[in-house]
Amino acid sequence: xxxxxxxxxxSQLVTSIQQIHTELSTQVSKAINVSxxxxxxxxGMYIHEYELNGCDRATYGEKLLETLxxxxxxxxxxxxxxxxxxxxxxxxxxxxxxxxxxxxxxxxPTNVISQKVGTASPxxxxxxxxxxxxxxxxxxxxxxxxDDETKRSxxxxxxxxxxxxxxxxxxQINSLYYERSGLSLDKEKLAILANQFAEPAVPQLAIRDxxxxxxxxxKAKEVMNESHLExxxxxxxxxxxxxxxxxxxxxxxxxxxxIGEQHYFVDLVFLSQNLEMSCSRRIKTGRV
Length: 288
What we know:
59% helix; globular; disordered C terminus; mainly alpha; 8% strand
């Protein structure tokens, strides 16, 4: 007997394709971010083990990271500052050893493999792997700036439960969410308010992570189209104007201009007070 074919209407076809795209995009995003996180953690682990057991470690002393960065010049994000961060990352999250897949276990020293796999707090004691899957390396970059272990664990939990983007985690840290939670009598209500308009982590944003750019050897323009960049600048217009310097103002978006008989659109138009003053002086002296 032939199995009857599944019949779908057009709306079901659209939904199925959207679901496939979302699911596979999420898997790709997680795979890339997990690989990047493990790569940086392993670099930190190697540095730590060398500092403890390297047979010629005394030769480099305090200049170890500086010398190492020079010899790793061709590798992405391996400057002195980042190497220090990877080392710090490893020391704060030694339990990530448990998330290293079997095919990479041979890269770990015996003493690292034998470490007890745990988490930073009892609340995170389920498994290590969900932490690595839930947070990108850019999340960890923000978390390792937090010296207080309890505070860091708090943001780990909230970030995972709220599925926060990197930008959202940074915003919550800057808003002193941890400190406000400690002073709040109704912590559940505060948590609801904090997550009400929180920006979620989505695969598209995760792949545009600058660390992912470097890791994959991509340039930002290869994965970020102009309209996205334009929107990002508009969303952060105040910071962007401050970067331009004093005397600038934002005039228009997609401003139409006519040159000859052709119509063109300027993505973003900014006016400079200094430029206007200069043009005014030239007009008065007849040089324009």
